[in-house]
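Hi all, long-time lurker, first post. I run a small reading group and we've been trying to get comfortable going from sequence to structure in the token notation. Rather than ask abstract questions, I figured I'd post a concrete chain and ask someone more experienced to write out its structure so we can walk through it together at our next meeting. Sequence below, copied exactly:
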Amino acid sequence: MSRTATLRVAVVGVSSLIGEAVIDELRARKMTFAELHALDDERSVGRAVSGEEGVEPAKTLPVSDVAAFDFSRVDLVFFCGRSALSERYAEAAAAHAWVIDGSAAFRARAEVPLVVADVNAGALQAVGARGLIALPGSASAALATVLAPLHALAGLERAEVATYQAVSGSGRGAMDELAGETVAMLSGKKARGRAFGRQIAFNVIPQVDAFDAEGVSREERRLWQETRRVLDLPHLAINATAVRVPVFFGHSLAVHASFTRPVSAVEAVGVLQRGMGISVIDADSAMEFPTPAVLAMSPDKVYVGRLRADLTRDRALNFWVVADNVRKCAAHNAVSVAHILVNRPQ
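-- Answer (accepted) --
Happy to help. Here is the structure in token form:
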């Protein structure tokens, strides 16, 4: 019998984009569980979400109140992107189960493993039969996935990164705002500009989350802190600018990476093609390079294109990265981490 057949699972925050995507990912992988519980705060109690086939009821799951749930009833819990829920319930749940947390609540804690399944699955070896595992933000996960094999090839020295982040990174309300503003402006009306403090339709905003006293946004700081931890390169120099763009799904990153050893574009393409969770788009292919409108709906890979030598510096490469922030970098990573935990030798 499969280990998953006896597994009791809960998904907290099922009403969020990531929560729904985790349910979809579990269903897509045709995993069979003994129990699957859909949990959220009281505002979502009573609604139904799609459920994994083989779990009763077969097609939908009723949403229950997380505040009333007994986590000793389950073996595995996914917390899906809302920090308030994670801060309130995740540590208590981790006393009974594996807790895979997709929010920012525990990412900075040194004692909590920060994991991208395609990069540093070895960090899970320290996790016992229960405990808390954090997942990095989507841009950090995409960046680390691509930088890891390049570091193994040539020794990563520095990365300059500009991220172009989809509005889904701020949740369903931000997506509704982009859709509403687009319709309004095409109808000759003004944009409301509520979700981001200014118009997002037909615009780009060089701010993702709040600025600190140094003018650095929280997202930019998270990007270098999380990427360093996942790559186990605590002194890696990462210079980041995070930008919000009017795209529904799919973060894009322009990356300029410097190395300690000489590396050619051909060598880099070869190692990336063998990398876990990566697809390289060849410049000679019909697609030429990845874009979020085309590839954000292909959730199992981080896509790399426009890979070329940096003509202004020795031992340096430029490349373009696209990944589905909700599906690949969040939900797919969460379920992949769960797979590793469940299927490792007992």
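A couple of things your group might point at:
Helices lie at 17-28, 83-93, 138-154, 172-186, 218-231, 265-273, 292-295, 327-343.
Residues 138-154 form the longest helix (17 residues).
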